[in-house]
Amino acid sequence: MELSVLLLRKILSMALMMLMGFAVVKIGAVKKGQTGVLSSLTLYIICPCMILSAFQLEWSSERAAGLLLAALAAVFLHVLYIALTAVLKKCAKLDRIEQASLIYSNGGNLIVPLVGATIGEEYVFYCCAFLAVQTILIWTHLPRLLVPENAKKGGLKKILLNPNMISIAVGFLFFVCRITFPPIIGDTIDSVGGMIGPAAMLMIGMLMAEVDMKGVCRSWKSWLVVGGRLVLYPLLLTLCFALSGVTRMFPWAKGVLLVTSLAACAPIAVSVTQMADISGLDSKKASALNVLSVILCIVTMPAMIAVYQLIC
């Protein structure tokens, strides 16, 4: 329960950052639609620095095994979520944006600062496994889900040239080869990478100021999607972790899978809105669902982590 309280405090702190971003747009200090610069800085500079910084750890067989477990857990999570969504799609007649919102979580920008602040900076290392798996799916499965015609288009180049994937490959190589950055370069990368939490929250707050929430809140399917993303899916994943018994066989696994659980109960990924916009779909609806999930996660995330700690 102590971790859940610490998590709640951190989420509330980040919520205040979102309000700052919301306020600067509402008072006119920043115009609507100007989040592009901040988004680009996050994608091309801040997030890669965060990933490189996370891999600057001393090699150990336990850390290598933990990274492998985190990667396998991330694959299982997405397979489970895609399968569950396929069932819900038929039952509730979900559209493509609603399906994508159920599957993909904001496991990068939001989870990395939360993991660093609540569990410890050394556990950010395991976030990279989730980021790698989700980045591959975001550039392969997500475009095909939103626009089936995209199935004919190859996404290998986009995956390989994605800044996050390049950073993960370089960081992992440095980790395996036990290469560390010189102090000046290391301090620079650590400082820039540490900006990911505030930058992401300010960006989300600015997006909130542009969204009309009334239509989304009136739809029962919106509450089904957000409830599934924040509560139902994470609970089922936690149950699978508990039944597997892996945390009892390997004591170190509980901390690793806690990182995956945090990513599992995170709000809807901003990437869904971005891909919807690129694909010519209703990006405003995707953005509104994202904002609704961000607001509600203040309550749901600590609750989901409390359940994980109780049964795993």
Task: Characterise the protein shown here.
The longest helix is centred in the N-terminal third of the chain and has 32 residues, at 61-92. This protein has helices spanning 2-26, 36-54, 61-92, 96-103, 111-118, 124-138, 141-146, 156-160, 163-177, 183-193, 196-208, 214-218, 220-244, 246-249, 253-264, 270-278, 283-311. The chain has 17 helices and no strands. The chain starts with a helix and ends with a helix. The mean pLDDT is 86. The chain is mainly α.
Summarize the structure.
This protein has helices spanning 2-26, 36-54, 61-92, 96-103, 111-118, 124-138, 141-146, 156-160, 163-177, 183-193, 196-208, 214-218, 220-244, 246-249, 253-264, 270-278, 283-311. It is mainly α and 312 residues long.
Entry keywords:
312 residues, mainly alpha, 77% helix, 17 helices
Low-confidence stretches: none
Number of discrete helical segments: 17
Helix/strand/pairing category = mainly alpha
The description of the largest β-sheet is:
none
Average pLDDT, rounded to a whole number, is 86
* DSSP strand count: 0
Oligomer: single chain
Helical fraction equals over 70%
What is the radius of gyration? Answer: 19 Å
How far apart are the termini?
13 Å
How much β-strand is present in the residues? under 5%
